[in-house]
Design brief:
Length: about 160
């Protein structure tokens, strides 16, 4: 299910880019805040949240992690959701809530979907870092070294 893979990418992979490796170091240097975590809602899901069926009209990449989480929560408790699908959704929601890390996704049926989203997420995180560097430069806040900025731009373009 596309929504499951998209949720895992947005909650696990994005968090790693903000906290680990070179991008994580840049985030720390700039004093950036981490992306919002998802909030587990009531057991019945969120009344008024879009249903999974709406993903045919929406692209999963256009939905926030919270919207995807809410859609999956709602789907989980629908009476016509097959038991095996309920198990999958429950497992995905649990991984997203715990922030298990992208290693937990490797080898699952969602690995391919997560990989496809990972490049876009990486580019978005790098764009956020470069934007924050520009803002901090204007506002006399902490900025990155020129070599770091060049490396980020190179990573974004590759």
């Amino acid at each position: 299910m596309k929504a499951c893979g998209a949720l895992l990418a947005k909650t696990l992979v994005k968090q790693e880019y903000y906290t680990e490796g070179f991008t994580g170091e840049c985030v720390k240097k700039l004093g950036m805040t981490l992306p919002d975590k998802i909030f587990a809602r009531s057991e019945t899901g969120v009344p008024g949240s879009a249903s999974i069926g709406r993903l045919s009209a929406l692209k999963a990449s256009e939905c926030s992690a919270q919207e995807l989480y809410d859609m999956l929560s709602k789907q989980l408790h629908k009476p016509d959701t097959a038991p095996e699908m309920q198990e999958k959704i429950r497992a995905v929601l649990e991984m997203a809530e715990k922030g298990s890390g992208s290693n937990a996704v490797r080898g699952t049926e969602y690995a391919g979907i997560v990989e496809r989203y990972a490049d876009n997420i990486r580019r978005d995180v790098i764009s956020d870092i470069l934007l924050m560097d520009d803002i901090n430069n204007i506002e006399h806040g902490p900025v990155l070294k020129m070599a770091d900025t060049i490396r980020l731009k190179s990573m974004k373009d590759s």
